From TrEMBL:
This is Prolipoprotein diacylglyceryl transferase. GO terms for biological process: lipoprotein biosynthetic process. The keyword Zinc does not apply. One of its GO terms (molecular function) is phosphatidylglycerol-prolipoprotein diacylglyceryl transferase activity. PANTHER family: PHOSPHATIDYLGLYCEROL--PROLIPOPROTEIN DIACYLGLYCERYL TRANSFERASE, PROLIPOPROTEIN DIACYLGLYCERYL TRANSFERASE. The lineage of its organism: Bacteria, Pseudomonadati, Bacteroidota, Sphingobacteriia, Sphingobacteriales. Pfam families: LGT. GO terms for cellular component: plasma membrane.
Length: 382
């Protein structure tokens, strides 16, 4: 396993380059990049077809930087400098525990003040270059794909908060025992929490920019499937704990690699399992028994599902139908993998189920209902 990017580089090239990046975080970032690409392509395609339309906005040009803008930029610069300079001065400590440094109160005050002044001055000079004696309002055209930068930022913020919230609900007992650690940790993220909260933020911003909710949902279906697949690569490579139950069964095919059937996740990032003989350092544990490598199963299946959704998008005419199909496929995929995946279970009225199984069931039912609704009302919704 590759808990950090440094481990990955050492495996590929045999070089020991200490970098403060964990593998899971890098693939989360790549998942957003993949989603950004797919969303943008769909927004452009739907605009070309006349389904989506650019909007006109009035903006003011020629204004000087306001005091509020200078203070805001200064605060942002201070935070960046406070942490960045401290991390550079204490680089080895930062490499060994980047999360601990970032989430602590430790920092460099002089670095913070320098960057605060730099950011405020930069904003002042940029506004000063274009200032007018009398600021004026001009009309600009905003195409649907041009709001993607705004969408991705808010999706990331609310997606992260939602993922943390749902994860703490799922592991409530552990949250009660270690609330601060779980709240400040970058690990422990639930996909469906991110999907629900991040998706809500996207719909609100899209509606403010003239895009109807059903059209925005259709835009997001293929992209979210692709982003999920890319994110799961990070889960597998880092060994973040999202693996399956113990698999003691022999391989069904001799040609099948061991890591695709039963895997112990050596050097996993969460430190689960037993010590690896001869290993020294921070990530030196592996599972006592091989488990189903469910993250890689999801990568394979979701890439195939993305390819399917991408291939049928030109044939989908009813608004809402694409997202309905996505909901059904996503729900079935996740429900099936939950059967062999380690997870916390709820016990209600004699039934035992995981949070993901419950949400998956709702997704399938909701997807069917949305698909039927879209097909019945395609003329009115277009």
């Amino acid at each position: 396993m590759f808990p950090t990017v440094s481990h990955f580089l050492e495996y590929l090239f045999g070089i020991n380059l200490p970098l403060p990046f964990n593998t899971f975080g890098v693939f989360v970032a790549l998942a957003f990049v993949a989603g950004y690409w797919a969303f943008t392509q769909e927004l452009k395609r739907k605009e070309a077809l006349g389904i989506l339309h650019p909007i006109k906005k009035m903006i003011t040009i020629g204004k000087r930087a306001t005091t509020t803008e200078l203070i805001t930029n200064g605060i942002f610069g201070f935070v960046i400098g406070y942490k960045l300079v401290y991390a550079l001065v204490n680089y080895q400590m930062f490499v060994s525990d980047a999360q601990g440094i970032l989430m602590s109160a430790k920092g460099n005050v002089l670095g913070g003040l320098f960057f605060a002044g730099l950011f405020a001055y930069w904003d002042y000079k940029e506004k000063d270059k274009n200032k007018l004696d009398k600021p004026k309002e001009v009309q600009v055209t905003v195409h649907p794909y041009q709001i993607m930068s705004n969408l991705i930022v808010w999706a990331a913020i609310w997606g992260f908060l939602g993922a943390k919230f749902f994860d703490n609900l799922e592991y409530w007992d552990d949250f009660v025992q270690h609330p601060i650690e779980r709240l400040l940790s970058f690990s422990g993220l639930t996909f469906y929490g991110g999907l629900i909260c991040g998706g809500a933020a996207v719909l609100i911003i899209a509606k403010r920019n003239g895009i109807k909710p059903l059209h925005m949902l259709d835009v997001g279906g293929p992209g979210m499937m692709l982003a999920y697949a890319v994110g799961r690569i990070g889960c597998h490579l880092s060994g973040d704990g999202d693996w399956g139950i113990v698999n003691p069964n022999p391989k069904p095919f001799t040609w099948l690699p061991d890591w695709l059937w039963s895997y112990k996740y050596p050097n996993n990032v969460v430190g689960e399992g037993i010590p690896i003989p001869g290993c020294t350092g921070k990530f030196c544990n592996e599972l006592a028994q091989g488990v189903y490598p469910t993250p890689i199963y999801e990568v394979i299946v979701c890439l195939l599902l993305f390819a399917f959704l991408w291939s049928i998008r030109d044939n989908i005419k009813a608004p809402g139908l694409m997202f309905g199909i996505y909901m059904i496929l996503n729900g079935i995929e996740r429900f099936c993998v939950e059967l062999i995946r380690v997870n916390s279970k709820y016990h209600v009225f004699g039934l035992s189920f995981t949070q993901a199984e419950m949400i998956s069931l709702f997704l399938v039912i909701g997807g069917i209902a949305l698909s039927v609704y879209a097909l019945r009302n395609k003329n009115e919704l277009a």
